[in-house]
Design brief:
Structural class: mainly beta
Helix content: under 10%
Radius of gyration: 33 Å
Distance between the termini: 69 Å
Strand content: 25-35%
Strand order of the largest sheet: 1-16-14-20-12
Largest sheet: 5 strands, antiparallel
Mean pLDDT: 79
Low-confidence stretches: 1-19, 21-40, 199-219
Number of helices: 3
Length: 550
């Protein structure tokens, strides 16, 4: 089904939450006071005091034993009980105070960050709201909590990095907002919440503002706006004067949803448990977007036939490009990026084959969404651009990176959220990536493997090696774990014509293969080479045995 969600920019909110709780707080100490004495008479207001009046969802004043806190940015003053008329007041110095409640009954909630008292606005009314229970579901990926627009729901987090899934069926087109309500000034816990809205693909939208690091807890609730048009609803067979199908309505006159809109609430909690409240609100009418002209990008840099096929010993590796230990350096003379130096080996981008992080080649992404476009924003299509370069890729599906390929890869990763915090498709696999290197997600370079400078790793046991005629492959065996209880290692092969060359150049060969014994010393690595004798090729079985101390 067509993705029904229109975004002005492709971004997901990932903001840090200072207090992972809906009603908690700290104070500067002292006894709880009650200036109104919980009497049944109308309270007397003091104009020069600060006061709070608490209203139940039905408009009546609260008679629940709720306490009120006036907090500066540094601390909270001694809390005050609200009386039977829902009023609490306190004689305190003129200042700006964030007003919070404690002891709110579990069936109610309120906006814990929505009330500020000042010397010009001393008397605050706080509205309580009913907490609703989802009418269906278990909060799982394919068994979502189903909730209604305009109601408050409590998110109960039971473990770190938990994702709780919600869905709702809108009754009309419009602009909708998902937002959270949690106490941020009263920090009892640290959390890192995010909300992800799903379309046809399960895709988290990257956030703004982006967190600087995992330790920066700004204490800000999340909020995400999105639009739902007529494409989100069931149509009849009838058309209007413009030839568009007329939406179907139910007995109440509401539009019939074509599918449920799904979002996930994610929370990383220091303690693994916390709670806060959420609500979906319709905040405006949907406006049919003005059809924008799509800009179809083509290659502008002359495509050169420079993508050399790798040799039999060369292997594509991204090395430490994402982490920043390897550096991509642009060479203005040839127009390509090189490894660590402008004259270093070429850096390639895999455009027509799979990479480490996902199997679908970039050149096939348009096919997967059923149309010949590869959008990196609402109006920019790179479909033809990728196909043009794909024709000149090497046998490995890779092409050397020039400036316009770099720009494309950077736009593609941003549009698809490959580096959204701990949940991005790439950043979850490479959490220590260097910011600014995101465009390198599809890039790497070729190294000869199985050479004396870059040998293959080999493990204890039996390994089958495919060898070509006159080919020699180097291996390295790391033996740190065996030094204490074992005294030697035996490397052998029963294949005819096989030979082994140890790290000192000694050749072990015979018509029946070889057997090579090495005493274990403080040398923690054994490097050796294997090959067939001249004129032979095929599979060779290499057996490595660690011999115990006699």
């Amino acid at each position: 089904m067509k993705n029904l969600i229109k975004f002005s920019s492709i971004i997901l909110l990932s903001l840090t939450l200072g207090a992972c709780t809906s009603s908690s707080g700290t104070s500067t100490g002292g006894d709880i006071t009650n200036t109104s004495s919980n009497t049944n008479t109308e309270p007397t207001y003091h104009d020069d005091y600060y006061s709070v009046t608490i209203y139940n969802p039905d408009g009546s004043r609260s008679k629940d034993n709720i306490t009120v806190l006036w907090c500066t940015e540094q601390n909270c003053l001694t809390p005050v009980f609200a009386n039977d008329y829902g009023v609490a007041e306190k004689n305190i110095p003129d200042d700006t105070y964030y007003v919070h409640l404690e002891g709110v009954p579990s069936q109610y909630t309120y906006d814990p960050n929505g009330y500020v008292a000042t010397s010009e606005n001393r008397h605050i009314d706080i509205q309580l709201y009913d907490l609703e229970t989802p009418y269906n579901g278990k909060g799982q990926d394919y068994n979502r909590y189903m909730i209604n627009e305009g109601s408050f729901y409590r998110v109960n987090v039971t473990k770190n990095n938990q994702i709780i899934y919600y869905g709702f069926n809108p009754k009309n087109t419009g602009v909708y907002k998902i937002e959270s309500y949690a106490t941020t000034i009263l920090s009892m816990d640290e959390a890192d919440p995010a909300v992800g809205l799903y379309g046809t693909n399960k895709h988290y939208i990257p956030s703004v503002p982006e967190r600087e690091d995992d330790n920066s807890k700004d204490g800000v609730n999340f909020s995400l706006q999105f639009e739902i048009g007529l494409d989100g609803f069931v149509k009849t067979d009838e058309t209007d004067e413009n030839g568009n199908l007329i939406p179907q309505t139910d007995a109440n006159g509401d539009l019939v949803p074509g599918w449920s809109f799904t979002f996930g609430i994610i929370t990383s909690s220091k303690t693994g448990t916390c709670s806060y409240d959420i609500k979906i609100t319709r905040i405006g009418d949907y406006e049919e977007p003005v059809k924008q002209e799509i800009n179809h990008i083509h290659a502008t840099t002359p495509i050169q036939d420079v993508a050399i096929d790798p040799t039999e010993n060369e292997q594509f590796t991204r090395g430490k490009l994402l982490e920043g230990e390897d550096v991509a350096v642009f060479n203005e003379e040839d127009g390509f990026y090189h490894l660590n130096d402008k004259d270093g080996i070429l850096i390639y981008a895999k455009l027509a084959s799979s990479i480490d992080f996902f199997e679908t080649p970039i050149s096939q992404l348009p096919t997967n969404i059923g149309k010949d476009v590869l959008l990196v924003d609402e109006t920019t299509d790179y479909y033809q651009f990728v196909l043009e370069y794909a024709e000149y890729c090497n046998s490995d599906g890779a092409y050397p990176v020039n400036e316009e390929i770099k720009v494309f890869l950077d736009k593609l990763q941003a549009a698809n959220g490959y580096f959204y915090g701990d949940y991005g498709q790439v950043s979850s696999a490479v959490p220590n990536y260097q910011k600014g290197n995101e465009w390198l997600f599809a890039c790497g370079y070729y190294l000869e493997v199985g050479t004396i400078d870059n040998p293959h790793n080999i493990e204890v046991g039996v390994t089958t090696v495919a060898l070509k005629e006159n080919q020699t492959i180097y291996y390295v065996l790391t033996i740190n774990d065996y030094l204490e209880n074992y005294e030697s290692v035996t490397i052998s092969s029963t294949n005819a014509f096989a030979k082994l060359v140890d790290s000192e150049g000694t050749v072990y060969t015979s018509e029946q293969g070889f057997s090579y014994n090495v005493l274990l010393t403080e040398n923690v690595k054994i490097v050796f080479a294997i090959s067939y004798s001249d004129g032979h090729a095929g599979n060779m079985g290499i057996r490595i045995v660690i011999n115990e101390v006699a």
